[in-house]
Amino acid sequence: MTHIEKRLTEKNMKLLKMEVIQGAHAGEIYRLEVLTENGENTSLIYKEFASERNNEVEIFSMLSSCIEPFSKVITLWASHPQAILIDDLGSPLKNEFSLLSAQHKKALLEKVLKRFAALHYSKVNIREGLKVHTLNSVWLEWAKNQLKRLCYECSWAESNWSKTIEQTYTKLNVTNYKQKCPQVITHGDPHLENIFYQDSQVWFIDWEWAAKSSPLRDITILCQDIYDPNLIQFISTSYYKKLKNLAIPFEDYLQDFNYFYIDHTTMMLAWEIEKFFLGYTSEGQIQEIVEFKINEIIKVTNEQIKWST
């Protein structure tokens, strides 16, 4: 009996079938078909954390009461090998989002933003140890190095892109930015591949980067899978309305959005280039992605400078 079968047996479940879920993720992920103690067949997801990426175990111990309403977690094992068992939520939103009409995209984003508002309104006692996320120079340095690699590899890559981003961080003093909005519990990694819609509800997985921060931390990460400026503007405008109970001045909200959006766009610029070098993205795709994100950084930088003068 394997350790997975043993763990399922302890939960009064019998393993019927197991398949590996491939992808660029940390740890090992399996889709399990099990027989429950009620005699029903059901599909579950079992994830074993990589030794250097097991922060989610500690996060759940600190925030279980906060996370449970937003994630269909069945159980978590803190002993070796550390792992989590959750309901199979089907396909992430990323798989279908680009195929939707503009109207349906907005309707789906409204549901996602409504769930984020519920999370960001959460009132829980947070144990000492939950990190506070602030902006720094990590993504800037990574992006500069990645853009240099891209210039060596692709003739269309522009050598001044790295300097453009560095100038943004200097002009706006991004690395020393102090958030204006109240600190809330944030998911920290809400890309569309970590968001699901099942049973008429939005669910989140992968909480390893959860931390206290501005609510705009989550919202600007969500925007990284959106390649339509109108939809990004829709997200920004719509979410401000959903946070009305926090009584955040619009100027503070907008400034947090701009700064976090610049930093997270820089982060994803670097990560998307990494995926290209790993073979997950074609050259045509990475060119579109890089050019879009560079233009977004320039646009938001100019807007922030204009707005603050």
UniProtKB/TrEMBL annotation:
A Pfam family reported for this protein in Swiss-Prot or TrEMBL: APH
All residue ranges annotated as the Aminoglycoside phosphotransferase domain in the record: 175-232
Protein keywords: Transferase
Organism: [Bacillus] enclensis
GO molecular function: transferase activity
Coiled-coil residue spans: none
Name used for this protein in its record: Phosphotransferase enzyme family protein
Lineage top rank: taxon: Bacteria
